[in-house]
Amino acid sequence: MNPFDFATAANINDAIARAGAGGSMYLAGGTNLVDLMKLGVALPSHVVDIKQLPLRGIWTDAFGLHIGALEKMADVQANPLVKAYPVLAQALNGASPQLRNMATIGGNLLQRTRCNYFRDTAMPCNKRSPGSGCPAINGENRAHAILGGSDFCVATHASDFAVALVALGAQLALADATFSRTLPLVALYRLPGSTPQLENTLLPGELISAVLVPPLPWATRSTYLKLRDRRSYGFALASAAVAADLATDGTIRDVRVAVGGVATVPWRAYTVENALRGQPLQQSVVDTAAQQVVVGARPLAQNRFKVALVQRVISRALLSLGGTNG
Ligand SMILES: Cc1cc2nc3c(=O)[nH]c(=O)nc-3n(C[C@H](O)[C@H](O)[C@H](O)COP(=O)(O)OP(=O)(O)OC[C@H]3O[C@@H](n4cnc5c(N)ncnc54)[C@H](O)[C@@H]3O)c2cc1C
Can you give the pLDDT at residue 176? Predict the structure, then answer.
């Protein structure tokens, strides 16, 4: 591991001031950052431990559901206010119980890709080492993206929770040295384009302080369906976060769909949503609407199966919401 300075932030301003130094990184649960430091993929010169900061709490008010960035995945998953949105609680069932007890919500949203080329410093990777190339494009690419990729990078985004939050239109509360702002979560993530090393739109040293899920009462009818190679420690090959507002006759009044495991960023499927509104929730309708998600998809040699898989996971997830809102 590379040498680095370590400091525990006394308060939010202290954290932001310390993180202003070039080469600084925040440490929350450490389950992703420490892993990448050991691999030599992350090389911070300063590590700022933020675990003591008061970025906690889960509550609702007129603005929606607030989740502090330092809340642990396990605590968020078990919280009754979160459980009211099944899609959120279910999306937090990844990793393992031990990891969920360490890992925080802010860290989950900013975790790095699981692309094996990115994680192997003996290999070229444009994301880790800009300009070195992307061996995944013509190499082992079964797990890679069919949506949102570029000639420079096809690594998938890894967070399940981000997919569920993007479906529900979540916002982030952010803090930096001079001001605070909110940002739609969907705007946090950058497509790789020709600069895959730039993964998000945070300003240098900016801290995620909380996640806000705006009020969406009908999202009590929601689910997260994740398909993976094995039941634990498995990242999504394809996943769908869906929520539906159904009329008593089963017509879809409103709907949210986002997919994971197939794209370089958490992927809101607006075209699928548009094809579903005003339609009955039935197999033929959802199968046809789900086709919209792969318009423009660019499958690679080993992951063509994801084209069909992502459509099926959307259909299955939506049909599981059947019945009416009462
Ligand atoms: C074996 C294994 C299996 C896994 N399976 C899954 C899975 O199925 N689904 C899934 O979604 N995830 C999975 N994960 C990933 C896991 O959820 C993440 O490692 C974890 O959520 C990261 O949270 P953390 O608090 O440990 O982040 P850290 O490792 O502390 O930080 C991660 C990154 O976020 C930054 N950061 C952290 N908090 C903030 C903040 N508040 N503001 C600004 N920057 C911040 C850090 O600087 C760092 O860059 C798995 C991990 C492992 C090791």
Answer: 80
- Could you read off the pLDDT of 88-132 as tens digits, one per residue? 999 999 999 999 999 999 999 999 999 999 999 999 999 999 999
Nearest CA to ligand 1 atom 28: 30
Query: Ligand 1: does its nearest atom lie under 6 Å from the Cβ of 33?
Result: yes
Domain for residue 128, yes or no? no
CB-ligand 1 contact for 175 (6 Å cutoff):
no
Which parts of the chain are beta strand (E)?
Answer: 5-8, 24-27, 46-49, 58-61, 64-68, 171-175, 180-184, 207-213, 222-227, 238-246, 252-260, 267-268
Give me the mean pLDDT over the 149-157 stretch: 98
The verdict on the CB of residue 69 being under 6 Å from ligand 1 is yes
Q: Report whether pLDDT(269) > 80.
A: yes
* CATH code of the domain containing 11: 3.30.43
The finding on whether 27 has its CB within 6 A of some atom of ligand 1 is: yes
Confidence of residue 232 (pLDDT cuts 50, 70, 90): confident
Q: Which of 14, 33, 52 is the last residue of a domain?
A: 52
- The total number of structural domains in the chain stands at 2
We report the CATH number of the domain holding residue 239 as 3.30.390.50
Show which of 36, 52, 68 is a domain's final residue. Answer: 52
- The verdict on residue 186 lying in a domain is no
* Assigned domain for 122 exists: no
Q: Is 278 left (phi over 0), alpha (psi -120 to 50) or beta?
A: left
Whether residue 47 has its Cβ less than 6 Å from ligand 1: no
Protein residue with least CA distance to atom 1, ligand 1: 233
Q: What is the pTM of this model?
A: 0.97
Q: 323 pLDDT band (50/70/90 cuts)?
A: low
- Edge-to-edge strand order for the sheet containing 58-61? 58-61, 64-68, 207-213, 171-175, 180-184
Q: Are 235 and 227 in contact (CB under 8 A)?
A: no
pLDDT value for 162: 98
The answer to whether residue 134 sits within a structural domain is no
Q: Whole domain around residue 44: which residue ranges?
A: 5-52
Could you tell me the maximum CA-CA distance found in the chain, to the nearest angstrom?
Answer: 63
